[in-house]
Structure prediction request, 820 residues.
Amino acid sequence: MSAPDSALGFDRLTMEFPGVRALDAVSFGVRAGCVHALMGENGAGKSTLLKILSGAYRPTGGTVRLAGQATAFASTAGALAAGVAVIYQELHLVPGMTVAENLLLGRYPRRGLLLDRATLRAEATRLLQLVGEDISPDTRLGHLPLAQRQMVEIAKALGRGARIVAFDEPTSSLSAKETRRLFGIIRDLRARGTAILYVTHRMDEVYEICDAATVLRDGRHVVTHEALAGVPRDALVKSMVGRELTNIYHYRPRPHAPDGLEVRGLAGPGLRAPASFHAARGEIVGFFGLVGAGRTELMRLLCGAVRPTAGEVRIHGAVVRGGSPRSAIRAGLVFCPEDRKKEGIIPILSVAENINLSARRTRLRAGGWLDHGWERDNAAAQIARLGIRTASAATPIGLLSGGNQQKAILARWLSERVRVVVLDEPTRGIDIGAKGEIYALIHDLAAAGASIVIVSSELPEVLGISDRVFVMREGLVAAELSRAAATPEAVLHAALPAGSAN
Amino acid sequence: MSSPPPAQPSRFARAWESAGMLLVLAVLFLICSLFVDNFLTVTNLRGLALAVATIGMVACTMMFCLAAGDFDLSVGSVVAFAGVLGATVMNTTGSVAAGFAAALASGALIGFVNGVFVARLGINALITTLASMQIVRGLGFIVSDGRAVGIRTDRFFEFGNSAWLGIPVPVWLTAGCFTIFGVLLNQTIFGRNALAIGGNKEAAHLAGVPVTRVKVIIFTLQGLVAAFAGLVLAARMTSGQPNTSQGLELEVISACVLGGVSLSGGVARIGAVIAGVLIMGLVQNAMNLLNIPPFYQYVARGCILLGAVMLDRLKQRS
Prediction:
């Protein structure tokens, strides 16, 4: 039951979709002036709860209480008016408009029939100061880096006088420095008595910023810790997954054979110097770097998404020609992009279609006919093998949770003759249980002789899974470290720009 | 196992998905049969089928265009140009084959150029095909000097005006197009690639789908089929008319949308497109039989299109 003094309370909140109960009588409360972590695996019901809170969904049962009062939001506008702001991972901003126009979107100051530009700018400047951002309000939003856009989104919520702010994985696209600033803002909000619901997968953040925590699993409430400080980390993880997690990275030494992937002098947009590196057969190499270090750019050159201006890529000794994803795939190099929604999945097509998309190139019968039987079997086999949680193979993939979408994208490549697998942030926004499954899969691929290149912003992940670690900094490959040498200090030291004190 | 129980779309939604427009067609057909005099006669139904032949053929390839997230406004102009060019070449050379070859080749070339501009150079399909629509219309007038080109080769007329098993040849040809493109959509990798491109172009590209090539092929096929439809039309009219088929592109797109093809790409079903084409033809036919003046027919057609789209919207919400 939600405590009566809660600023925000959920009372037996239930949300049923046809055939699925996404939330099952969930009750807990968030106190004013408290940062409350909401944790759980993908599919645990966190997103559904946030959507109800933001007014996007109407619960099929139970109530949301604001300061004890039962509330039903008719729309997202209704939630905003009631002082509830939900800040999503995918930002709801208009790239073509200026920062000021975005900040006051929907409530522009007017003078008669005209837009009051002076007030607009003044108000926008005030909001930007609240989040400590030194951006001109006239900057076009699309010109800002992702991290700053996120700050704009937060400022927008503050500007609406939100008394309850929910964050959905706010740090997934922020650098360490930006994360620290965000935490500063969150502490300010807390000091002013705002109730904050904080959704994250990152344990460190939970212990750093949160006072209380609630864990959901499979749509049910598992536990609420009103005082998080005394709760051991293992207990929290265990309550999320319902089982003990031992070594989620599944690291084990594997035999390496020469002649895997060889990259020589690869150059192109986003790189300050040509990049060279190699990954043996059966080896996992990690790429670490701060946001903007050029990791994604390098991977996009490697997989042919962007045409390199110089350099060569060899796979098993043979030069890859063509400079397109298609030619890379033909040579056995496959790519899982960073932005799953934009570049990975085809949301309106079925899970089966998404899995078979690439496979069918190599399975085509004469004249390019589809082999419906093979496609059905392949989709079913991959769904079973990876444990993809989907109602059926015919379900549109856009309806699946992030972790299951990622597994389906990996499944796309499992029926291929893969020699090199390039993974850009493969576990971003994915819960800890699905992460473990994906790591196990990566190890299986490597054990079968594939060379794996994995990009990650999460240091423990890079260190946990890689045989060797490359560190990128400001558009170049700055360091190469063996697994033994790759301590957090050494990697961070190499990743930080020269001249920065810490 | 902690996975959620299987979620199936409701049975109504699925049934509507597969047969909704066929049902609407059946109901309309029944109503017209009961209440419109002379509707349910062999002569009238034959006329109805002939009337939708051009739209039907062009809708096959327009479905692919829309599925891949593009559209082609130049088809009406290509129909007219192909008829005029075919007629002129037949009159000059006396050879039906030469006329066919010239018209089909030019249609395919126009489509290819559209495709290169859209897919290779990345120019918006609306702008590209709006331009080619006017250019090709102009070319038709230039070739014919603005007048209908009467065709002197009788053998060519049979192609448009004879019948087989009591059904006019153009109707057979339209049915052939539906079959070929239906198979292409559902049974081939090409069809799946078109849907994938419309669903998410960037993801398809990174997954190894040859996006540019597929798009260029779709536009080329679109030009080819429009030119073929233009030849069939010219054979029926025994002349190439530079003025014909103005606004055809919008009727074709309307028929596809009626058939549930998504304008944002990624969704297409041939059965529903056939139903869409027939609904358009049926309504037109019934209005003619009821002596509704043409001015009102425009209004009625627009309302039907809006109604269909709204129905689709409601279905998605349920």
